[in-house]
Structure formats: structure tokens, C-alpha cells
Design brief:
This protein has 11 helices and 6 strands. By secondary structure, it is α+β, with helices and mostly antiparallel strands. Strand 3 and strand 4 form a beta hairpin. The longest helix is centred in the last third of the chain and has 20 residues. It starts with a strand and ends in a 12-residue tail after the last helix.
Length: 241
């Protein structure tokens, strides 16, 4: 993900503001053409001096000194910052996903696009739509994974596409990795197990069949149970449409 210089300055400032003194830190910036530049800070660097150092590095990042009117034409990526021996490190916490929140129509539309495309479209069509699919994925990243699955598994067309997707290993593996990260995140935030009973009731399965799997974070087995147990209207074992 690229950041404009202004966005980068704001982001750098917000990170450094988490502590008043930077102890032996470095920030690595990558330009739009892939070149790396490093801003290093000695011990006891003040917040103000750190910001000045970042600004100076950006001004001299590529091909010598950039004129001020050229500064905003270059993009940079803030890769990482390492900090040694902080007395009181501060960890940024992502906003917790709320399972109880109902999905908005626009969120449902993005999920429809994702699941129906990944399950029903040809692999060539999926490859061509990669950018659009990524945008849809980004727009539903904030949704609780159980709420996401609940919506999919309560719709016949989505259930069919979801099951078909699982058979397309390249497509499924990437989707599964994303879901696994979200499930792990909510598990770690104690925001998962307590919702399994409600989730199971809504999608029509026995909570006992998935609770211990979720408790042990066995996500492959968790999904296998969903595919085995989620009922279909008409023929309950028929997923392919």
C-alpha cells in the first residue's frame, strides 16, 4: 500500500506520538520505484526532531534534492519501525469487530460480489477481476467473521457458490487464509466463542459440532463441519447448482 508524502507524514507522526522519546528507532521508506531509504534516530531523539528527520529524508529521497513542487508527486511506503528498550511500549489496537451489528445493504452487496464471483466465475474471469475483488474484500474486512459466514450460509445461492469455491484450491486457499486471520484475531480478543451459539442457531447446525474446533482454533476442521452440516433447501446434501 502506498502513501502520499502528506499521508506518510501524518502516519509517521501518529506512530511516533505514542511515546515521547524515540530510543534507537529507524523507519524504512520505499519510493514508488522500489528504492529504499532509511531514517535513523539516535537515543533520546525528541518527537519534534524525529518528524524533522522524516521530512528531511523525504526531501532528499530520490535523485538528489527534490524541489518543493515535486515533493507531492512521489509516493512512499512506510514499511516498519523498530524500537529498542522502550520503558512503556504502546501497542495500537484495531477496532473490535462487532458480531451483533447487522449488515448494511452495501456490505451485503460486497459479500455477494465476492462469494458469487469466486465460486461461480471462471478462473480467468477471477484473475481479471482481482483488483475489484480486493476492493470488495477491503470493504468487508471490518465485519465479524461469524457474521460474514452467517450471511453467506443463510442464502441458498451464496451457500452453493461457497461450497464450489472450496473445491477450487487456489481460490479457496487465499480466501481461507484471510478468514483464518480474522477468526484468530477475534479469538484472541475474546470475541468469538461467546457468539458461536447464536451463529449455530441461525445457520442451522449443532453448536457442539464446532465449539471445540473453534476453541482449539482448528479452522480447517471448523469449515469442514460447516460444509457437512449446513442444510440446503430441497436436497440437504446437494450444494452444486
Amino acid at each position: 500500500m502506498k502513501f502520499s508524502v502528506i499521508s506518510k507524514m501524518i502516519l509517521s507522526a501518529s506512530i511516533l506520538q505514542a511515546f515521547s522519546v524515540v530510543n534507537g528507532a529507524e523507519i524504512v521508506c520505499r519510493s514508488h520505484n522500489g528504492e529504499l531509504s532509511v531514517v535513523e534516530f539516535p537515543e533520546e531523539t525528541s518527537f519534534a526532531d524525529a518528524i524533522c528527520g522524516i521530512r528531511e529524508q523525504l526531501l532528499f529521497a530520490e535523485e538528489g534534492v527534490l524541489a518543493s513542487n515535486q515533493l507531492f508527486e512521489s509516493d512512499y511506503l512506510l514499511d516498519f519501525m523498530t524500537v529498542a528498550a522502550l520503558d512503556h511500549p504502546v501497542e495500537a489496537k484495531a477496532a473490535q469487530r462487532v458480531y451483533q451489528r447487522e449488515l448494511e445493504p452495501k456490505e451485503k452487496k460486497e459479500i455477494d460480489t465476492l462469494i458469487l464471483t469466486l465460486g461461480n466465475s471462471s478462473l480467468i474471469s477471477i484473475a481479471r477481476a482481482k483488483s475489484d475483488l480486493k476492493r470488495s474484500g477491503d470493504k468487508v474486512e471490518h465485519i465479524h467473521p461469524l457474521r460474514f459466514l452467517e450471511y453467506v450460509l443463510m442464502d441458498e445461492k451464496l451457500k452453493a457458490a461457497f461450497h464450489t469455491m472450496e473445491k477450487r484450491k487456489l481460490v479457496w486457499n487465499e480466501f481461507f487464509d484471510g478468514m483464518k486471520k480474522r477468526l484468530d484475531a477475534e479469538y484472541g480478543a475474546n470475541n468469538l466463542l461467546e457468539h458461536l451459539k447464536s451463529f449455530s442457531s441461525k445457520v442451522g447446525i449443532d453448536v457442539k459440532s464446532i465449539y471445540s474446533l473453534a476453541q482449539d482454533r482448528k479452522w480447517k476442521e471448523f469449515f469442514n463441519q460447516l460444509f457437512l452440516q449446513i442444510p440446503r433447501s430441497g436436497n440437504p446434501v446437494r450444494y452444486d447448482m
